[in-house]
């Protein structure tokens, strides 16, 4: 716990009580709804007077969202003045919903940075430009900018410099140029974790599809513009020390990747812009992820979205062998199929764990032998082609969530349990609708009982419910 006055008080109540007490004690302007939270190590209360406590403040959370704007700037100004000599503030957050003077807000930000804090979180509902002349810090380790904050005009090269920053998150920011996030990256020579989220249609794309950094280890890109493929036609990941990648975007025409020692990857593909085989069979297939998938071939854990299951099938010219892949997890959607699953399983000889969120997917003529929904007319043909991909699969753990016990789901489970020979543990998360089901207990029993009665090809297989 970061802060506690009394064991009987919740954390939130403790903060409110202390806010009021601190406000009164230091003759701060009364602004009961504006939040200005002081976080002080709890042990300090036993030994320190309030005066000394101020010198121990290590976390400031400033928030006007539940109050009005009146008096708030004065409240902040005076409080910051009282903390001028504080050297202990490690984390500062500024959440502002209302519009204040831009120079005033910049003065606050400058004040936070000059105090030598380690973590800074900036969020605004209104639009503010950050005065980049003072937007630097020799101590900051973690920086998050979200909402209406944006740099003041075009950043000059070197316009951002955070020599110790390790984690940078830019969420829904507006830039005048789609290269500007690169200046943030190049101004952070020790950056290890970078998140760029740009998925609101009102905000123009701020990502030009290039990430180049020798230091980044964890990278998250969310770029959702399925109907604006002009944003970029290729994508570069020059990140030789990357360990984790979470990437969601439409699929461009080509990829050039150096993913180094990538261990875990997830996300991928926005199939809305790629292909809808059922509704528009004559549409061209757009995008090519072949190079990206090749760059993933050494990973241990792969998470795929419903769209990705189709992107990996339709937009990948050759599938590498995933020798190190131990865990494959994916999510199903009623409007997306599982076409790539047999290929992925066959290309993952050391797969140990299969994690599936929801079994219900779209039945298409591409359904392979990993699922049980092959149309009757094709069953005979498939049988002639050879053994089921699951029969040679080494998976020991099958983890299913969102199981509702429909006939189709039960049929799929029969298919898994009847073919996965190495299965040891099956975890099933049964999803019940407590509002609609009058007899929840009985239904739960019927669902679990039906699963327990399924024949299992592996004699060591145990089924657990969660
Ligand atoms: Zn299927």
TrEMBL record:
Q: SMART domains attached here? A: FBD
By its UniProt entry, which InterPro entries does this protein fall under? FBD, FBL60-like, LRR_FXL15/At3g58940/PEG3-like
What is one Pfam family matched by this protein? LRR_At5g56370
Please indicate which superkingdom the organism of origin belongs to: Eukaryota
Query: What are the residue boundaries of the FBD domain, all occurrences included?
Result: 388-466
Q: What is this protein called?
A: Leucine-rich repeat 2
């Amino acid at each position: 716990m970061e802060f506690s006055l009394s064991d009987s008080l919740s954390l939130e109540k403790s903060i409110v009580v202390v806010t009021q007490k601190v406000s009164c004690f230091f003759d701060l302007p009364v602004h009961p709804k504006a939040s200005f939270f002081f976080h002080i190590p709890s042990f300090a209360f036993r030994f320190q007077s309030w005066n000394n406590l101020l010198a121990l403040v290590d976390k400031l959370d400033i928030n006007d969202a539940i109050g009005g704007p009146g008096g708030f700037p004065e409240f902040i100004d005076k409080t910051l003045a009282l903390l001028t000599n504080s050297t202990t503030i490690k984390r500062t957050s500024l959440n502002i919903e209302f519009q204040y003077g831009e120079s005033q807000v910049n003065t606050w930000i400058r004040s936070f940075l000059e105090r030598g804090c380690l973590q800074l979180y900036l969020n605004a509902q209104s639009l503010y430009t950050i005065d980049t002349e003072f937007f630097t810090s020799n101590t900051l380790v973690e920086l998050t900018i979200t909402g209406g904050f944006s740099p003041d005009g075009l950043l000059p090269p070197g316009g951002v410099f955070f020599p110790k920053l390790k984690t940078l998150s830019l969420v829904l920011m507006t830039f005048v140029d789609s290269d500007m996030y690169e200046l943030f990256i190049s101004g952070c020579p020790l950056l290890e974790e970078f998140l760029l989220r740009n998925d609101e249609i009102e905000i123009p794309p701020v990502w030009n599809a290039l990430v180049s950094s020798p230091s980044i280890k964890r990278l998250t890109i969310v770029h959702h513009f399925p109907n604006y493929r002009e944003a970029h036609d290729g994508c570069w990941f020059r990140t030789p020390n990357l360990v984790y990648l979470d990437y969601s975007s439409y699929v461009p025409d080509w990829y050039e990747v150096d993913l180094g020692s990538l261990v875990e990857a997830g996300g991928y593909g926005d199939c809305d812009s790629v292909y809808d085989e059922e509704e528009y069979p004559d549409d061209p297939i757009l995008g090519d992820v072949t190079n990206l998938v090749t760059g993933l071939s050494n990973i241990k854990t792969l998470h795929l979205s419903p769209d990705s299951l189709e992107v990996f099938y339709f937009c990948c010219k050759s599938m590498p062998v995933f020798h190190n892949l131990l865990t494959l997890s994916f999510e199903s959607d009623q409007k997306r199929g599982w076409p790539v699953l047999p290929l992925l399983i066959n290309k993952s000889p050391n797969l140990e764990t299969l994690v599936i969120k929801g079994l219900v997917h779209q039945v298409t003529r591409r359904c392979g032998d990993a699922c049980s929904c092959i149309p009757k007319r094709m069953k005979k043909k498939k049988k002639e082609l050879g053994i089921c991909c699951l029969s040679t699969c080494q998976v020991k753990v099958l983890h299913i969530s969102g199981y509702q016990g429909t006939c189709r789901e039960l049929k799929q489970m029969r298919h898994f349990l009847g073919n996965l020979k190495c299965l040891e543990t099956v975890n099933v998360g049964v999803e019940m609708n407590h509002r609609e089901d009058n007899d929840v207990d009985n239904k739960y029993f019927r669902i679990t009982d039906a699963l327990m009665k399924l024949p299992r090809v592996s004699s060591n297989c145990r089924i657990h419910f969660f």
